[in-house]
Amino acid sequence: MLALQITSPKNFMGAMLAGELFDSFLLEEASIVTAVSYTMDGRIRRDFYPPEEREDAQLHPYDFIPWKDIKGTCYDLIKGKNTPLGFHFVLQLIPSYTADMVAKSAPALSSFVKAFVLNIRFDGEKILLCTGTSYHSFVADKEAEKLWDAAFKQFIHKKEIACEEL
């Protein structure tokens, strides 16, 4: 697990909500607290769509909504003259990216790794990022977690996000 504190919150928020920073992720869940609290479950509700669209893998390739499709809604809930009291986003790296990373660096764990996860939490004062790894079953080997931590650290550095490791 990697924990990072954002040192330039304004720049980070712009990159997250108005830029493309996390467009390679899916939204698993979110909570935003402003004048009221909002809670989102990012799971795609296939029953919402007409029958011909429900199972179309090209229209809905994932179980969760892509961040790029929901970030505008989150931005609308957060923006305003007052700073939110808090928020928490749980994102998952797009499954094909996860599978590729594991297959290249830890092939023995390919059938065990379910998702690479990123928690983004704002408590009213600071923004923290925390990585995590979700497994299909118990795995004692921490190789996948180390892989994700290193890849995310490289990703955040490449995107020039100012942060410090905790």
Tell me about this structure.
The mean pLDDT is 94. This protein is an alpha+beta fold and 166 residues long. The protein is 32% helix and 30% strand. Strands 1, 2, 3, 4, 5, 6, 7 and 8 form an eight-stranded antiparallel sheet that branches. It has one domain (3-165).
Q: Can you summarize this structure?
A:
With 166 residues, this protein is of the alpha+beta class. It has helices at residues 9-18, 51-54, 67-78, 95-105, 143-158, and strands at 3-6, 25-33, 37-41, 65-66, 86-93, 113-122, 127-135, 163-165. The protein is built from five helices and eight strands; from the N terminus they run βαββαβαβαββαβ.
Number of strands: 8
How many helices?
5
Order of helices and strands: EHEEHEHEHEEHE
Characterize the main sheet.
8 strands, antiparallel
